[in-house]
Amino acid sequence: MNYLVYQSYGSTDILNECCYSILSLLKHGFDPEKIRIVIYTDRKEYFSFLPSHILFVEMNAATIQDYKGPHAFVHRLKIKVLQDSTARFEGKILYADSDIYFLDSIDTLFDQIDSANFLMCNNEGRVDVVKNKVFKKFQNFLATHASYLKENYVPIPESVMMWNAGIIGFQSPNKELLDKVLYTNDIIFEKFTSHVVEQLSFSYQLQQHGTVHKSTDYVFHYWNLKEFRTVLAEFFNFHLASSHSLAEVIEDVDSIRPDILIQPKLEYESLSFIKKNLRKLKGKQNRWKFPAYVIGQKK
């Protein structure tokens, strides 16, 4: 059996993202005899309008806090959820962040997974080559703590390739790999509290034990579009108020495609320093705007 695993708890914004992700998958067709959707959540009832074949693993506040670890690192919870999933389920596991929009059926994604071939979202580049603040800080950490990392059996080079962890695909027999990811995460986070420590830990360990493949032909990860949460709230409020069926909601998924709505923001962020600041001077509302969209346009 193949399993698509989510963690979705806490705020309504996160729950809406997860619901929309599942809807975008259902739009492409879905065989519950081949793939089971599993949601780790503290609000099972929020997903009641989705198909009944979805499996839930309920988490309470104590479990969530325990999974975050002694430093309350929110992304550590992802590793613990996947460790738990390998204890419960046997087969291929595809983890998806809640802010994943599916561009196509995922049947062939599962076909790419085996004992030595793993999936992540996209290759973000070598830590010592990509010039952004996050990578520079990580490169500095790896350089200044080389002895510490070596002593703790995770000699991560500055040339390590960073992969986005919005998607993670592996087989359940690779569960010992998750132990190594968790260990790497905790060793690094003890000295360096970056929000991408979990991502680097997955990237390093999966590359040490096989080949990592991209998933971007099948998914769009809108991690840098938090503004989309307002659109999602509008989308679900509209369909809830109208008492639309699940089929009707699925039919309307593409009225708010995040890969389209993000384009003005990407254009704005690509502007030169001067042009960007000229827009800022005209007020926040003039930086960029969503393209026009009409929710319920097919009703």
Description:
- By secondary structure, the chain is α/β, with parallel strands linked by helices.
- The chain has two domains: 2-221, Spore Coat Polysaccharide Biosynthesis Protein SpsA, Chain A; 228-286, no CATH class.
- 42% of the residues lie in helices and 16% in strands.
- It is built from 13 helices and eleven strands.
- It has a seven-stranded mixed beta sheet with strand order 3-2-1-4-9-6-10. A two-stranded antiparallel sheet has the order 5-11. It has a two-stranded antiparallel sheet with strand order 7-8.
- Helix 1 (12-26) links the parallel strand 1 and strand 2.
- The chain is globular and about 60 Å long.
- It starts with a strand and ends in an 18-residue tail after the last helix.
- The mean pLDDT is 94.
Secondary structure topology:
Elements lengths: L1 E6 L4 H15 L8 E7 L13 E4 L2 H8 L7 H13 L3 E5 L3 E3 L4 H5 L5 E4 L2 E4 L6 H12 L1 H6 L9 E3 L3 E5 L3 H15 L7 H13 L1 E3 L5 E3 L6 H14 L4 H6 L6 H4 L1 H7 L3 H9 L18
Parallel strand pairs: 1-2, 1-4, 2-3, 6-10
Antiparallel strand pairs: 4-9, 5-11, 6-9, 7-8
From the structure above, extract its key features.
299 residues, alpha/beta, Spore Coat Polysaccharide Biosynthesis Protein SpsA, Chain A, seven-stranded mixed β-sheet, two-stranded antiparallel sheet, 13 helices, globular
Q: Supply Rg.
A: 20 Å
CATH fold category name of the largest domain? Spore Coat Polysaccharide Biosynthesis Protein SpsA, Chain A
- The CATH homologous superfamily of the largest domain is termed Spore Coat Polysaccharide Biosynthesis Protein SpsA, Chain A
CATH architecture of the largest domain: Alpha-Beta Complex
Total of helices: 13
- How would the global form be characterised? globular
Main beta-sheet annotation: 7 strands, mixed
Mean pLDDT: 94
* Beta fraction: 15-25%
Count structural domains: 2
How many angstroms separate the termini?
36 Å
* Uncertain stretches: none
Helix and strand run: EHEEHHEEHEEHHEEHHEEHHHHH
Identify the CATH class of the largest domain: Alpha Beta
* Secondary structure: number of strands: 11
Q: List the strand order in the largest sheet.
A: 3-2-1-4-9-6-10
What share of residues is helical? 40-55%
Helix-strand category: alpha/beta
